[in-house]
Design goal:
4-stranded parallel β-sheet; Pectate Lyase C-like
Length: about 190
C-alpha cells in the first residue's frame, strides 16, 4: 500500500490510469478520430486504363468514343464496336462485314456504300442516320431505333428488324426481300419471282 500511496502523492497514478485507458480504447477500436476514419467509405476503385482502339479487322473497340470521326474507306471486318459512340461518324465505303455494333450510337452517321452484311446492329440508336447503298443483308437490327433514319437503295435482304422502331423511317428504294420486319413477319416487296 505504501507503493500506491507514494505514486498517488507524486501524481503518477492518474497518468498511469490515463495511459491504461488510452491503450484500452486503442485496442477496442481507437479514439473518436479513428472511429470516423473507419466509418468513411473507401475511395472508389480507379477504373482500369482502357486500351486504345486500333481500327483494324477483328479489333476490340468496345465502348470507344469515335463520334464525328472520319472512318471512311476503312476495312474492319469483324470489329467489335459494341456500346461505342459513333454519332455523326463518316463510315462511307467502310467494310464492316460481321462487325458487332450492338448498343452503338449511330445517330446522324453517314453510311454510304458501307458493307455491314451479317453485322450485329441489335439495339442501335440511329435516328437521322443515312444508309445510302448500304449492304445490310443478313444483318441483325433487333430493337434498333431507326426513327427518322433514311434508307436509300439499301440492301435489307434477309435482315432481321424484329422490334425495331421505324417512326419516320424514310425508305427510298430499299430492297426488302426475305426481310423479317418489325412485327416479326416477312417482308418481300422486292423479291424477284
Amino acid at each position: 500500500m505504501d507503493f500506491l500511496a507514494t505514486l498517488k502523492n507524486k501524481k503518477v497514478l492518474p497518468m498511469i490510469i490515463a495511459f491504461t485507458v488510452l491503450l484500452a480504447m486503442t485496442a477496442c477500436g481507437g479514439n473518436e478520430k479513428m472511429t470516423k476514419e473507419e466509418n468513411t467509405p473507401p475511395p472508389p476503385p480507379t477504373p482500369p486504363e482502357r486500351s486504345e482502339c486500333v481500327l483494324k479487322p477483328n479489333a476490340n473497340c468496345i465502348n470507344a468514343d469515335l463520334s464525328g470521326k472520319n472512318l471512311a474507306g476503312l476495312v474492319m471486318p469483324g470489329i467489335d464496336f459494341s456500346g461505342a459512340n459513333l454519332e455523326g461518324t463518316l463510315l462511307n465505303n467502310a467494310i464492316l462485314v460481321g462487325a458487332d455494333l450492338s448498343n452503338t450510337n449511330l445517330s446522324g452517321a453517314q453510311l454510304s456504300n458501307t458493307n455491314l452484311s451479317s453485322a450485329n446492329l441489335t439495339d442501335i440508336l440511329a435516328p437521322g442516320a443515312l444508309f445510302h447503298k448500304t449492304d445490310l443483308s443478313n444483318a441483325l437490327l433487333l430493337r434498333a431505333d431507326l426513327n427518322t433514319t433514311v434508307f436509300v437503295e439499301t440492301n435489307l435482304r434477309s435482315a432481321n428488324l424484329t422490334g425495331a422502331l421505324v417512326s419516320g423511317l424514310e425508305d427510298r428504294d430499299a430492297i426488302w426481300c426475305n426481310t423479317i420486319y418489325t412485327d416479326g413477319k416477312p417482308r418481300n416487296d422486292d423479291c424477284q419471282n
